[in-house]
Structures are given as C-alpha cells and as structure tokens.
C-alpha cells in the first residue's frame, strides 16, 4: 500500500512542469493549524485536529479564489463532496485570500459544500511547503490527504486543477480498503 502511494506520488511529480516544488513526504506528520474559514458564507474557526478526530482530511491549497483554475477546482470538489463524505473525509481549501473573498467563494464556487480557510500570513502554506515558487504571496496548487492519526497519506502537486479530485478520492478509497 505504502509503495503504491509513493509510486503514485512519484508519477504525479513527473507530470508537474517545473518540478522544483517540494512537498511534505508521504508518512510525514501533518502540521496542525487553526485558521479562520468560511462555509456557505458563514465564518468559523477551522481546526485541523478537530476535523481529523472525525476522519481523514483532504487539504488542498489553491492560488486565488475566483480565478479560472481555482473556480474549476472548487466546483469539482463541490460536485464530489458526497463521495468524500461517504469515505468519512472532510475537505478544506486554503488560500491567502481575505475572509470577505472566502465568504463569497464558499457560497459561489464551493456551493456551500465545504470550507475554505484564510492564510493571509501564509504560515499554513509555509508549513505545508505549498507557497508558489514564483509568487510566494500565493499558494501552489497542491492537495494532501491526511489520515486521522495526523500523517500525510497522499500528496499531489499540479497547477492544472483537473486531477486533484480524482487522485485524492482514489487515495482515500485505497486507504479505506485497507482500514475499513
């Protein structure tokens, strides 16, 4: 199982243009964090450790709300939210956007189905090696699957938003098959 995830991570990394970006390793501890977030336009405090107490977490970083790729990616996560819930997973997106922007984004492109968190000081991005190499004010498009014990199960980096949902769902299904 672990070899499969490492191989998938390696294969994904080969497909990334400018693969100079480093990500947290599979098996590494996921840094805990607390951030202001919005769900369906309502602000709240997201705490990773509380979400992990309920099951795995899909933590994805994206450059900026309401940009073409980020809107597409958010809609894809929203469309798949029932599949994530069936696997017991929570989805949360993170960007450097301000809370007013995230309140609107959480209603519009996220369709009120999952939370998006603000990382204005970029500390969460830094802890997850998710700052964009050419524009550190924004996040790299990177998705992590974190198991309830706080370990990185899967990582996928690609500025193209097309495969983040399918890849994280596959990683969750594979994990669930071994832990179900």
From TrEMBL:
<dbReference type="GO" id="GO:0034599">
    <property type="term" value="P:cellular response to oxidative stress"/>
</dbReference>
<protein>
    <recommendedName>
        <fullName>thioredoxin-dependent peroxiredoxin</fullName>
        <ecNumber>1.11.1.24</ecNumber>
    </recommendedName>
</protein>
<keyword id="KW-0676">Redox-active center</keyword>
<dbReference type="GO" id="GO:0008379">
    <property type="term" value="F:thioredoxin peroxidase activity"/>
</dbReference>
<keyword id="KW-0575">Peroxidase</keyword>
<keyword id="KW-0732">Signal</keyword>
<dbReference type="GO" id="GO:0005737">
    <property type="term" value="C:cytoplasm"/>
</dbReference>
<keyword id="KW-0560">Oxidoreductase</keyword>
<dbReference type="Pfam" id="PF00578">
    <property type="entry name" value="AhpC-TSA"/>
</dbReference>
<dbReference type="InterPro" id="IPR050924">
    <property type="entry name" value="Peroxiredoxin_BCP/PrxQ"/>
</dbReference>
<feature type="signal peptide">
    <location>
        <begin position="1"/>
        <end position="22"/>
    </location>
</feature>
<comment type="function">
    <text>Thiol-specific peroxidase that catalyzes the reduction of hydrogen peroxide and organic hydroperoxides to water and alcohols, respectively. Plays a role in cell protection against oxidative stress by detoxifying peroxides and as sensor of hydrogen peroxide-mediated signaling events.</text>
</comment>
<dbReference type="GO" id="GO:0045454">
    <property type="term" value="P:cell redox homeostasis"/>
</dbReference>
<feature type="domain" description="Thioredoxin">
    <location>
        <begin position="24"/>
        <end position="174"/>
    </location>
</feature>
<comment type="similarity">
    <text>Belongs to the peroxiredoxin family. BCP/PrxQ subfamily.</text>
</comment>
<dbReference type="InterPro" id="IPR036249">
    <property type="entry name" value="Thioredoxin-like_sf"/>
</dbReference>
<dbReference type="InterPro" id="IPR000866">
    <property type="entry name" value="AhpC/TSA"/>
</dbReference>
<keyword id="KW-0049">Antioxidant</keyword>
<dbReference type="InterPro" id="IPR013766">
    <property type="entry name" value="Thioredoxin_domain"/>
</dbReference>
<keyword id="KW-1015">Disulfide bond</keyword>
